[in-house]
Write a structure and sequence with these properties.
With 357 residues, the protein is α/β, with parallel strands linked by helices. It contains 12 helices and 10 strands. Strand 7, helix 6 and strand 8 form a beta-alpha-beta unit. Helix 3 runs parallel beside helix 5 and helix 5 packs parallel to helix 6.
Length: 357
């Protein structure tokens, strides 16, 4: 049974202290009582967009088990509010909380398209797939306002450079024309995140994301237009969506997906505290069970950082999940695979047009 005292439309239910800050902020009960008596709104629950100006936009990924070598993020923080999101911890580096701040203070890198173009024009740059959304979703609600993802796709197309996308937002279909043009030269791969077929589960896990019906439509529409789609069943959370692995795999295969991948939830840094606070309010009847089972997958702790183990977990529950995904792959994706992206065209288009000599 869900608690009634939840903050509507948000995943995290409070701000967690930033580990890197000396001072902390506390909302005292006497202040809350005063505001209630005076009829004042304590928290307007509004999203703020804050401009930031980094010197570079593409990051080298050194982790051996992420599956990408370069990533870029036009936005830091994410209004989708997915409670389990590993990117929450990165908001602390900017001086904010990994809790509500992560969802309500969105940092916007308006120079992203220009920075990307500068990189792709460098003589020293050798084409290699760059993944948009290595940290936060490039099609989150901020994209409707700023259109930085679309502008970056135009840059990738201009310079014939391969690009990957990770998203759970149907807004990607707005850019179908650009994706189709990229696909003609095998320059695009799309990864759609689907964590459940249940709208009730989706609403509490990922409060401001596209509905499951719309995400399945995205998979189908992209696939029907020749754009390769991989679906990320990620994360799998014991006793929340672990029973849905086979139904999800069948649904995305039927929609045209080329492959599936998965991870088992891990709650590093302050995310463990945020998740535990959330689940006790959102799913109090099974909170302890879920937390124990997550710990069972990670050697008795919610936190897991060991390369090679952190994504797949260990122990009996993790093994059952991993075996079920293997079965799903054999059953629904036999003979299917994602194509390798084309890195051969970019050198000829280093200045934005085809070199004749």
């Amino acid at each position: 049974m869900k608690s009634k005292s939840t903050i509507k439309g948000r995943g995290a239910q409070r701000n967690i202290h930033n580990r890197f800050l000396e001072l902390s902020h506390e909302m005292r009960d006497d202040f809350l009582e005063f505001c209630e008596k005076e009829g004042e709104i304590v928290d307007k629950n509004k999203t703020q967009y804050l401009n930031v100006f980094p010197k570079t936009i593409v990051n080298k990924v050194t982790s051996p088990d992420v599956g990408m070598a370069y990533s870029m993020n036009m936005y830091q923080g994410c209004e989708h509010g997915c409670i389990y999101c590993y990117a929450r911890n990165s908001h602390e580096f900017w001086g904010y909380s990994a809790g509500l701040d992560f969802e309500r203070r969105i940092l916007v890198k308006k120079d992203a398209p220009k920075l990307l173009e500068t990189l792709l024009k460098k003589k020293s740059w050798k084409a290699y797939p760059i993944v948009m959304s290595g940290n936060t979703d490039c099609y989150q609600p901020a994209e409707q306002k700023f259109e930085l993802t679309r502008q970056c796709l135009e840059v990738f197309l201009k310079y014939k450079h391969p690009v990957g996308i990770i998203t759970k937002n149907a807004l990607i279909l707005r850019d179908l024309n650009l994706l189709k043009d990229l696909a003609k030269d095998n320059l695009i791969a799309v990864n759609i995140s689907i964590t459940s077929l249940s709208e009730d589960t989706r609403r509490i896990l990922e409060p401001r994301t596209a509905t499951i019906k719309r995400r399945l439509k995205v998979v189908k529409e992209l696939s029907d237009n020749g754009i390769p789609v991989n679906v990320m069943l990620a994360p799998i959370i014991p006793s929340i969506n672990s029973h849905e692995i086979l139904p999800m795999a069948k649904a995305v295969s039927d929609a045209g997906a080329q492959s599936i991948v998965h991870t088992i939830v891990r709650l590093n840094g302050t995310i463990g505290e945020i998740f535990a606070d959330w689940i006790k309010k959102a799913l109090p009847d099974r909170a302890d069970k879920v937390l124990r089972q997550i710990e069972n997958c990670h050697g008795g702790t919610l936190n897991e950082s060991r390369f090679g183990i952190r994504m797949r977990g260990e122990g009996q529950i993790a093994q059952q999940i991993n075996d079920m995904v293997k079965l799903a792959q054999l059953k629904y994706f036999r003979g299917k695979s994602m194509p390798k992206l084309n890195t051969e065209l970019h050198e000829q288009h280093k200045d934005g047009q085809l070199k004749l000599f």
